[in-house]
Design a protein that fits this description.
β21 and β22 form a beta hairpin. The chain is α+β, with helices and mostly antiparallel strands. Among the domains are: 148 residues, Beta Barrel (Cathepsin D, subunit A, domain 1), CATH 2.40.70.10; 94 residues, Rossmann fold, CATH 3.40.50.20; 64 residues, ATP-grasp fold, A domain (Dna Ligase, domain 1, 2-Layer Sandwich), CATH 3.30.1490.20. α3 runs antiparallel to α4.
């Protein structure tokens, strides 16, 4: 038995209430069995993950007997895998983890094997190696220690709890760039397993009962969260993959609908207008007969003519005169391209502000200045960036814009105009390199704060039946 310096004797009956705080389990009834050497915890959907040098196991638990609607996800490092013989003589290979057990204010580490105890009244069995020297067993009694209550699973404290649980996270990305590497690095630093999945190599099983995502000939494992980094060129297929993860029930940092809307510049501007987000005067028309009226709706030259599929400043043209605007519009129409016409905000002077919104908060902002002679401030086009302090109005505008698309990670680009901030674009896959380098902030860390708080099962509302005891 483990040695202990505690002098206070703990009396245990043959059944006691315990908690396993490391696993996010605040209340559990355990059977005390000194005839068993090893402790066992009820677990199902047991799955290993992580590197072979430091393997982990994750599993789910129904803490309340008869309540299969309440599911607690858990994970822990694997300390061993051993053969265990049950009371009926059956042998089973089980994963062994280590976790702290807490009883009446006292806590100590124990080894636990994982097995399905669905048919047992007690979700946990405490063997003799888990009992400290100062524990005295009263074999004829139950609950010698203070009783807990299953009601704790239905409290706000439980819903907001963040147990020390390793997550399995997928980054949907086709590129080995700074953003992808930072997401992997930061996640692994926090003890999570982060896998980069090439979006175009995913394929789907679409049915009502068992929808799945497959990759390289195998069904992908169950991820706790997905971080979409969908390139503009594969938006339709990429968002279909995100939708499939949503169908399975995986937490996706940015929803498929928000990504789709942000990529369709016409729809994006309509959506921002609906949510009263300030933006430059914008017009759209399909007929070549409407060119003059189209320009008139926006204002006078200079004007911006922007392809609906433009990214990183490509397909964005500054027309300094009305005649130049007509020529650009005619050229785009000749290519059968869809485009917008926008008012040019002269006072911005080739500068814009990128606000990085994470989980409903502006966590960083930078001012981007275009290369000499270029009205576009994109860093991909040689622009420069530096940290900037934004106003309350700019902050509120950025938050309103990200909320319009329901994005938990968004780069909101806005201009400082005489009439207040004007949003140019909402980017659903913003790069991290420029803003982390210019502001010195750990944006990837801020994103994982959100993932860790949301990628967990929330106990559902209690059924209208008698309280479980």
């Amino acid at each position: 038995m483990p040695n202990s310096d505690d002098t206070e004797v703990l009396n245990f009956g043959w059944e006691e209430w315990i908690s396993l705080p490391d696993l996010g389990i605040p209340a559990l009834r355990a059977k005390i069995d000194t005839g068993a050497r090893t402790s066992a915890l009820h677990a199902f959907d047991i799955e290993t993950f992580g590197p072979a040098s430091k393997p982990k196991v994750r599993f789910t638990l129904h803490p309340i007997p008869g309540r299969d609607d309440l599911v607690i996800p858990c994970s822990a490092p694997i300390v061993d895998r051993r053969e265990v013989t049950s009371s009926n003589g059956e042998k089973e290979m089980r994963f062994v983890i280590e976790s702290n057990i807490s009883v009446n204010g006292q806590s100590w580490p124990i080894e636990i094997t994982l097995t399905n105890r669905a048919s047992m009244n007690s979700r946990m069995l405490l063997g003799r190696t888990a009992l400290k020297d100062n524990i005295s067993i009263v074999a004829t009694e139950r609950f010698q220690q203070p009783e807990l209550n299953y009601d704790v699973y239905h409290t706000s404290k439980m819903r907001n709890a963040q147990p020390n649980r390793s997550l399995r996270i997928a980054v949907l990305s086709r590129e080995d760039n700074y953003s992808t590497r930072r997401l992997v690095e930061e996640g692994e630093k926090r003890g999570h397993t982060v896998e980069v999945i090439n979006t175009t190599r995913c394929y789907m099983t679409i049915n009502a009962m068992a929808p799945d995502v497959h990759y390289d000939g195998k069904r992908l494992p169950r991820f706790d969260a997905v971080i979409p980094r969908i390139g503009a060129s594969i938006t339709p297929y990429g968002t279909a993959i995100v939708r499939q993860f949503e169908t399975i029930g995986t937490y996706c940092v940015n929803p498929s609908a928000g990504i789709t809307a942000s990529r369709d510049k016409l729809y994006a501007h309509q959506l921002m207008a609906r949510h009263k987000v300030g933006m430059p005067n914008t017009a759209f028309a399909a007929s070549p007969k409407d060119t003059t009226n189209l320009i008139g709706l926006v204002g006078t030259a200079p004007l911006i003519v922007k392809l609906l599929e433009s990214t990183q400043g490509k397909g964005v043209v500054l027309a300094e005169t009305k005649k130049a605007a007509e020529s650009v519009i005619d050229a785009f129409r000749g290519l059968k391209a869809n485009f917008l016409v926008q008012d040019f905000v002269k006072e911005a002077a080739g500068e814009d502000i990128r606000c990085l919104v994470v989980g409903g908060k502006v966590v960083a902002s930078m001012k981007r200045t275009g290369a000499e002679g270029d009205f576009r401030s994109n860093l991909h086009r040689g622009g420069s960036a530096k940290s900037v302090r934004i106003t309350k109005e700019e902050r509120e505008t950025a938050l309103r814009a990200a909320k319009a698309f329901d994005l938990n990670l968004a780069g909101v680009d806005l201009l400082r105009s005489e009439n207040g901030p004007k949003v140019l674009e909402v980017n659903s896959s913003p790069g991290l390199e420029g803003i982390e380098n210019s502001t010195g902030k750990n944006i990837a860390g801020k994103l994982y704060d959100v993932i860790e708080s949301r990628a967990r099962a929330t106990p559902i509302k209690r059924r209208k039946t008698a309280k479980a005891k």
